[in-house]
Amino acid sequence: MRVLHIAYQRLRSYGPRRVSWAEKMNFGLIRNDHYVHTFSDRDVAAFEAPLGIRELGYTKANHRLLSVSEAFEPDLIIIGHSDIVSDKTVAEMRRQHPSCRIIHCNCDPLFVPSNVERIRRYAKQVDAIFVTTGRRELRQFEGLGAKVYHIPNPVDASVEVLDNSLKADLDIDLLFCGNATGHTQRYELLELLKVELATELNFKTYGCFGEPPVWGRDYDRVLARTRMALNLNRQDCDYWYSSDRMAQLAGNGILFFTHSATRFDELLPEHSAVYFRDKDDLLAKVRRFSADDAMRREWAARCRNFFHKEMNSGLYSQFILEATFEQPFSHDYVWARDINSYGSVT
Question: Each residue of 147-179: pLDDT tens digit?
Fold first, then answer.
């Protein structure tokens, strides 16, 4: 299958960045024998704009995308987190290729109002939408035109290459990386933990409290030193929602703590992730696993094995194609056991 994937590639970062969910999707599609062409809409807009001012290049980027679409003749068009691709361009690509399916994949949270509007806009134009929040929260997008599916954040065997569950000589006891400050109060919890654990653990908080964030290989090197980590979303309120941080931690054999409100206990195996209710519960569990390294390693190994076996980029990409083209599911996808390939609940 020929796949045109519209996704920001951060070409101008020239190296210091983390692998994105969009790249993992590409890796999975290619491993499944599909031909993928990526169109980096934001980069093209900047390259085509006067003085490199991205906003001045939106019209030209849409023209370039239509040229690529016409030349490439895709069977499937995947639109990522794009606010550049216009409704007119989506309609024109459909006119160019009437038998082509068009979908929107979205890994941003629903507590950001602009992202909800983005999803609603695409749901009226495309054949299917795939969102990294559980279906319970996705009902608001049903009936707009597109089929609605949940997807997880996947691991990839070429990216999550560490297995810290096998290691005992790790000098970072607890880690949190994150620099987003909008729509969140998580820094209040982090500050309290810093005070409580100051004399007990080596707790690193890159991107917080004036400490610079880490990217690219620097981020990989930090993960390679880490025993346990916090999976704190900007808000922990939506069913089965997490940033891609969870896959990065689990896939590298790092035991992670996540809020019980997101109900990942319904998706992940027992004794893999550690769930907490509040600050006191989190503190008690951090101390418990810090004191019992054998248990830390056992739980982290179980979680890592689960992610690499059941939530990898190959299955992730395969599921998206099967759902889009309404094919019978070829695998018992753990995140989609309650739905049919054509989107209805079983």
Answer: 999 999 999 999 999 999 999 999 999 999 987
The tokens describing 246, both together, are 């969870």
Name every residue whose Cβ is closer than 8 Å to that of residue 42 and which is 6 or more positions away in sequence: 8, 54, 82, 84
Whole-angstrom Cα distance, residue 167 to residue 175? 16
pLDDT at 247 over 80: yes
pLDDT in tens, 80-125: 999 999 999 999 999 999 999 999 999 999 999 999 999 999 999 9
**Which residues are 231's β-sheet partners?**
258
Question: What is the rounded CA–CA span in Å between residue 80 and residue 104?
Answer: 6
Q: Write down the number of H helices and E strands in the chain.
A: 12, 11
Q: What domains does the chain contain, in order, with CATH numbers?
A: 2-154+312-336 (3.40.50.2000), 164-310 (3.40.50.2000)
Say if residues 101 and 76 touch (Cβ distance below 8 Å).
yes
In angstroms, the CA 180 to CA 218 distance is 18
3-state secondary structure 270-332: CCCCEEECCHHHHHHHHHHHHHCHHHHHHHHHHHHHHHHHHCEHHHHHHHHHHHHCCCCCCCC
pLDDT at 181 over 70: no
Mean pLDDT of 175-184: 76
Residue 103 falls in which region: left (phi positive, over 0), alpha (psi -120 to 50) or beta: beta
